[in-house]
Specification:
6-stranded mixed beta sheet, 7-stranded mixed beta sheet, alpha/beta, about 15% helix
Length: about 210
């Protein structure tokens, strides 16, 4: 599995622009998934071009929640590739052009090795992907309680890692059994997480490419 961070508050590579928001491109070997779309479509597409990622490569779009910094690039992306399935929380209305729009409420399997926690606390869903190491959890902002996210994920297998925005998360003990931790975007306690989990910690930033 290969994960390319397309949109983040910081940049990890010269020429890749940073901005408030989050998006990543996941190549599972079976599906190519665009997770969230950042705040700005022009910047998203520019960073994709610089990372040699063609919008036409995307099979599925997964939207975690309907805040501007996660859906701002959606319209511009769909102008480039609308032959996609989009998995969205039930409150995200008005999407046009996509081949198929699937509203996700409860925890469910989306495809082979691909799951959703369901829309937790009426605001956000997280993407779960099966790897040979266990489940990888991808979060947008982790607005719901992290214990709820991890419990929902655990219904589909053992969680080995997490990537994405962690907002004000500080229940650090919940990460004790994780082997991979990559905080991005809105994470407020990044330094503490890095200090506690030095071996598991991976830096984020737009342009970062991670192989799992």
């Amino acid at each position: 599995m290969k994960i390319s961070i397309l949109f983040d508050n910081t940049s990890a590579k010269p020429g890749i622009k940073e901005d408030w928001g989050f998006s990543c491109f996941v190549e599972t070997g079976k599906r190519n998934i665009l997770f969230d779309t950042g705040a700005d479509g022009e910047l998203l597409l520019e960073n994709m071009r610089k990372l040699s990622i063609d919008p036409k490569q995307v099979d599925d779009i997964f939207i975690s929640h309907n805040h501007f910094d996660h859906i701002g690039g959606l319209s511009a992306f769909l102008n480039r590739n609308n032959d996609v399935r989009i998995f969205v929380p039930k409150d995200l209305l008005g999407i046009r052009k996509a081949r198929e729009i699937i509203y996700v409420n409860k925890a469910m399997q989306l495809d082979e090795g691909m799951f959703s926690t369901g829309t937790l606390e009426e605001i956000e869903q997280s993407l779960l992907l099966k790897t040979n190491k266990g489940l990888l959890v991808i979060v947008g902002c982790a607005h719901p309680d992290m214990n709820s996210i991890l419990n929902a994920a655990s219904r589909f297998g053992k969680v080995f890692g997490i990537i994405g925005g962690l907002h004000g998360f500080k229940q650090f003990e919940l990460f004790n059994n994780l082997d991979f931790i990559c905080p991005t975007h809105c994470t407020q306690h990044n330094a503490e997480i890095k200090n506690l989990y030095t071996k598991q910690y991976v830096d984020g930033g737009a342009g970062t490419i991670i192989s799992i």
